[in-house]
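Dissemination and training. As part of the outreach component of the grant, students in the summer workshop were shown how a complex can be specified as a set of sequence lines and then modelled as a single object. The example used during the hands-on session is reproduced here so that future cohorts can follow it. Participants entered these lines:
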Amino acid sequence: QSALIQPASVSGSPGQSITISCTGASSDVGSYNLVSWYQQHPDKAPKLIIYEGTNRPSGVSNRFSGSASGNTASLTISGLQAEDEADYYCCSYAGRLLFGGGTKVTVL
Amino acid sequence: QVRLVQSGAEMKKPGASVKVSCQASGYTFGSYGISWIRQAPGQGLEWLGWSSTHNTNYAWKFQGRVTMTTDKSTDTAYMELRSLRSDDTAVYYCARQRYYYDNNAYLYWGQGTLVTVSS
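and obtained this result:
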């Protein structure tokens, strides 16, 4: 059982927006607001797409955005594209690294 | 540019040990730690721990079974896991933070090392 809770799957049509939630506790997500998000395509290493809750590394599309409220962080993908079909993981830190169970995004 | 290159796939029997290496290049090795993260087949990401040239921090689950070290002379990080079980079968990744002060922003990843534990 993961320390951070994510929905197992989310789907959307091309061009739509989807949001993935990540629920933790006041001791991790709720305390530090330092949630990061990773995208992982099959048989590839994870890729950092959001750090410190809302920031994107250089080169990451601005269609990806992060937010947080209380003990829940969220990743929104706007203008969904076929290449966004992947697994997404949230990650927090509370003296140790915590990952969510992952969310499979399907583009219909 | 920053690169992390891991050692090749390993096949081990239950009860054995495995040592995976992660050779870094493109930055000052001693200025950053390395985390080790694994992914069992079809499963999510699991953090094993972090090590730098000065310190280590292991996940509670792996305390006593894992040792992470670094070798500044070769810019290489190592992760040794002992008393292997079948559920240790996974791809093991090494990863480096974006900046030294980041806690969970892992921008750089190795290519992964498949460790298979089977009798």
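The mean pLDDT of chain A is 93. Students were then asked to discuss how this feature might be tested experimentally.
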